[in-house]
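We now fix the convention by which a protein and its fold are recorded. These numbers are not coordinates but entries in a learned vocabulary of local backbone shapes. A record is reproduced here so that you can trace the correspondence yourselves:
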Amino acid sequence: MEVLQLLISGISQGCVYGLIALGFVLIYKATEMVNFAQGDIMMLGAYVAITFISIWDWPYYWAFPATVLVMAAIGVALERLLLRPMIGEPHFAVLMLTIGLGFVLRAVAGAIWGNEPRALQTPYVGEVIRLGEVVIGYENLATIVGTAVLCFFMWVFFRFSRVGIAMQAASQNQLAAFYVGIPVKRMYSLVWALSAAIAAVAGILTAPVSLVDPLIGFVGIKAFAAAIVGGFGSMPGAIIGGLLIGVVEQFAGLYLPPGFGDMSTYVLLLAMLLIRPQGLFATMQKKKV
């Protein structure tokens, strides 16, 4: 039963890693930029939800979509104001810009909401399901179910919607997409909006489990490792990589000496780079321009 309990906790935490990793993959596939501020955008989404729910007393089921919409708008603003002018610049410059953006977002969060950890109140906080000796918190269950539902809608969006197909076309061949009438720059803005919205969902789902403070965004480092483990160009790989790291982390934290839980993420990353550098789902292709 202990193994099952650890497995559920690991899957729940892995879902958060996977959602943040999904944002990394979406942006990279579309723009070949790596957004190292993705974890901090997740942190900002959690604080926006706390503002709506704990400060303004909005109902949870209103605050959830409102937070997603606000973060999508922030994603568009970041792309247009900061990242679009960097198109054509060296990748190292873009990398440093996103790292600097992370510092700015942490400073802004600390200035607005303070550095003390905050909790997000939800209708299901503290509720549990007991299956024999296994205790499943509603928070963990909500994270797992919410991730599954989001992944399903993402699959439907990219498989059947015109906008989703246009976004894929723009990420594969910018010039051909432009020639057939796809507004490539608008697709890039939508990718950033979608990435920020997914990060907001991750923040809302993880906030009831982990207290929110400006440094919670550093979880993005583990999510980046999850994206690499899964295969940096694969959206299913991002989720699978996150789940794998979450489960390994839980088991290593219990059965290995203290400190090995966090270290296990990077050990797994190094092992994957040595054994299969392209990741579990090697679907990356060279972008045609």
User: Anything to note?
Assistant: Strands lie at 128-131, 134-137. The radius of gyration is 19 Å. Residues 252 and 261 are 5 Å apart (CA to CA). Residues 11-216 form one domain.
